[in-house]
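Below is a filled-in request sheet from our internal design queue. Each sheet records the structural input a requester submitted and the sequence that came back. We keep these sheets so that new team members can see what a complete request looks like end to end.

REQUESTER: design group, bay 2
PRIORITY: normal
MODE: inverse folding
CHAIN LENGTH: 568
BACKBONE (tokenized):
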């Protein structure tokens, strides 16, 4: 500020320093010197503590050299000592990093930071259950990043974050791929609350509202919703991998995220549509969750099974905008635009897939149906499979009056007296068709394998429909809650209910881990030690052999119960 100079250096003369001291408001040069020294020492102390956890430039296990074009013998020995089986491959990949062959290491600053990062990174990867697999996943992750300076700086300053990413790479390749595609979620890992408790539904709603309010336009709203959902789904996955959350907490948490997104996007969709066609005066719109969302059993890759129902007062035939639409067309457009808001790819990627096959009359029916049509269809026209599916129907978004009317229609349908012979015959035939269409690949195809989740769900849903007319308390959208209610009502023997509940709990827990970690059905022979460790933690089994034996035993017993129930 003296003579408009761009400088951060104190004057060298006594007179110059006295001038600065006076300018800064000090009585004497000595007071100025004491104050300045105190601040310099404070900053120096903070800086030292910030980086005191930074790793040395060599591994504690030995030499690490990645210059030149050939393997350094001592480096290969060090890598082998760390636990890498294919040390030559690891060394070659790191040399490629240093030579700038990937985008993340093309700048001199990135390569400088990488030199310091490699020793602690290798030790963190070596601490995972399978160092070679963990390194391969990290290499894939790094190769997809647009730049490396920010990430390398973060990892050098935060050894906990480095260990977390190493563990993700070693045990959950699906999450590692997600990190690579959407590196912005790394920012969330720095949040000290990230590995704390999973946020409540109310907290999620507030977080999303804050992000949506900052959007400038409709496209910004769609992007904000995607960033929010990806970060929160990622949070659930990382917490399960870290053991900060139990596998059985994942389903409700993922359902809460989806519900928040739907509730946050609908007003924006209504405003965007209303700019041209207006609104339906006193009209109401409901979103009904079915399937995994309805039962709060979502996994990281679940789609959204939805039904849309609307209602409007008599005498209201059109919307009130400049380009009015008939009521039925307006709500069809609203539903279609909400589906598009949930499914369209934007600059932030996709969000959810939406499945509308469970709506009245299936894929041939209108996207949104009137309350009258919904009630009439399920009262007199619905097929057995639709009534089974309706046991999981849950209204997640609707005005109070319409919510009550839709819930009444669902309850009236489910509590109507059933033709028991037809019910179990139809259910058995549907399961056989599914088995033909989706034969279980192996025991770890937990949804479709005999004795898997489909069998358990069919048992619960068929028994609910059979008994709801006389015992409506058996109606529960969640499978395990339904099994417990059926046992309490006497519809399930205690031993059968125990077997089915144990199987459902185990299979749901394993399914959550597998959907977080893999994109395909587990092959036990190819499963990494890291993934097996996650499955053991989720199941509570002492070792993988014991887990397979327990799973096989429960599946055999479930299938036996299924055959007995469906023979009624």
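RETURNED SEQUENCE:
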């Amino acid at each position: 500020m003296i003579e408009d100079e761009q400088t951060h250096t104190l004057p060298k003369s006594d007179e110059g320093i006295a001038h600065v001291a006076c300018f800064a408001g000090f009585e004497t040069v000595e007071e100025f010197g004491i104050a300045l020294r105190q601040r310099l020492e404070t900053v120096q102390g903070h800086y030292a503590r910030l980086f005191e956890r930074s790793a040395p430039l060599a591994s504690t296990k030995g030499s690490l050299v990645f210059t030149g074009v050939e393997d350094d013998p001592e480096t290969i020995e060090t890598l082998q000592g760390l636990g890498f089986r294919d040390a030559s491959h690891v060394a070659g990949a790191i040399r490629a990093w240093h030579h700038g062959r990937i985008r993340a290491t093309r700048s001199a600053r990135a390569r400088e930071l990488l030199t310091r990062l490699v020793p602690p990174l290798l030790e963190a990867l070596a601490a995972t259950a399978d160092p070679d697999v963990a390194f391969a996943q990290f290499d894939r992750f790094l190769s997809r990043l647009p730049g490396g300076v920010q990430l390398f700086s973060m990892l050098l300053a935060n050894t906990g974050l480095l260990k977390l990413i190493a563990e993700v790479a070693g045990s959950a390749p699906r999450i590692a791929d997600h990190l690579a595609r959407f590196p912005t979620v790394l920012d969330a890992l720095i949040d000290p609350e990230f590995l704390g408790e999973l946020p409540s539904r109310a907290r999620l709603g507030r977080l999303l509202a804050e992000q949506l309010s900052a959007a400038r336009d409709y496209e910004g709203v769609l992007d904000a919703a995607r960033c929010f959902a990806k970060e929160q789904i990622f949070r659930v996955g990382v917490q399960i991998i870290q053991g900060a959350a139990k596998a059985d907490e994942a389903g409700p948490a993922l359902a809460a995220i989806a519900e928040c997104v739907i509730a946050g996007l609908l007003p924006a969709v209504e405003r965007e549509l209303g700019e041209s066609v207006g609104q339906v005066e006193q009209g109401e719109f409901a979103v009904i969750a079915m399937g995994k969302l309805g039962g709060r059993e979502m996994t990281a890759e679940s789609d959204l099974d939805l039904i849309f129902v609307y209602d409007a007062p008599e005498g209201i035939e059109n919307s009130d905008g400049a380009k009015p639409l008939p009521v039925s067309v307006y709500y069809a457009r609203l539903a279609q635009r909400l589906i598009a808001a949930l499914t369209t790819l934007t600059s932030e990627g996709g969000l959810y897939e939406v499945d509308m096959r469970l709506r009245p009359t299936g894929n041939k029916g209108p996207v949104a149906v009137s309350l009258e049509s919904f009630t009439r269809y399920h009262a007199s026209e619905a097929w057995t499979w639709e009534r089974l599916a309706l046991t999981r129907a849950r209204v997640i978004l609707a005005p109070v009056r319409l919510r009550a009317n839709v819930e009444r229609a669902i309850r009236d349908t489910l509590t109507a007296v059933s033709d028991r012979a037809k019910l179990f015959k139809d259910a058995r035939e549907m399961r056989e068709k599914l088995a033909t269409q989706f034969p279980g690949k192996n025991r770890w195809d937990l949804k479709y394998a005999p004795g898997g989740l489909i069998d358990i769900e069919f048992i619960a849903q068929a028994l609910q429909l059979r008994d709801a007319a006389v015992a409506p308390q058996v109606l529960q959208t969640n499978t395990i809650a339904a099994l417990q209610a059926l046992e309490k009502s006497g519809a399930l023997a205690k031993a059968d209910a125990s077997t089915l509940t144990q199987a459902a709990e185990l299979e749901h827990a394993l399914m959550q881990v597998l959907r977080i970690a893999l994109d395909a059905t587990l092959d036990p022979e190819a499963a990494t030690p890291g993934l097996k460790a996650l499955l053991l933690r989720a199941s509570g089994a002492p070792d993988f052999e014991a887990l397979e034996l327990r799973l096989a035993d429960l599946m055999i017993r479930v299938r036996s119960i299924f055959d007995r129930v469906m023979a009624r």
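SHEET NOTES:
- The two ends are 91 Å apart (CA to CA).
- Residues 51-57 have pLDDT under 50 and may be disordered.
FILED BY: M.R.
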